[in-house]
Predict the 3D structure of the following.
Amino acid sequence: MTTIAYHHESKTIAADSRQTMNGRIVTDIANKTKDVDGVRFAFTGKASDEDLFVDYYFNRQKSSLLPEASALVFDDGMAYSVVVNEDGNVDKFKLTMNFTLGCGGDFALSAMDHGKGAKEAVEYAMTRDIYTGGEVRVIQL
């Protein structure tokens, strides 16, 4: 899994770079962000479903498969938490507060509750969540 943290005051997203599969670390240098048509995505979930997620987001193509991924999305100057629901519809929640995604998200959110920024919050999650690790990448929105 992963940990992605959005720090609202600083308009910063941080993400770890650990990628796992079947309980094993695949790499600690994965890039979990992607820019598509002027929209920035920071993904959690199955890396192989990122392109499918993007297709749903832009309403390019829908299929019988639903992406097993979600993302923090920066679009048109705003940050959103975005999921594809069980009906295949894209649910966008405008972020007006600190927010996290991924299995280390609770740790990261707690760190931000205690004054840490996005990068420091993900670094803290790395000390508690075995699926969060590697390098922390920061995006200033």
User: Anything to note?
Assistant: The chain has a mean pLDDT of 95. The helical segments are 50-57, 105-113, 118-128. Residues 118-128 form the longest helix (11 residues).
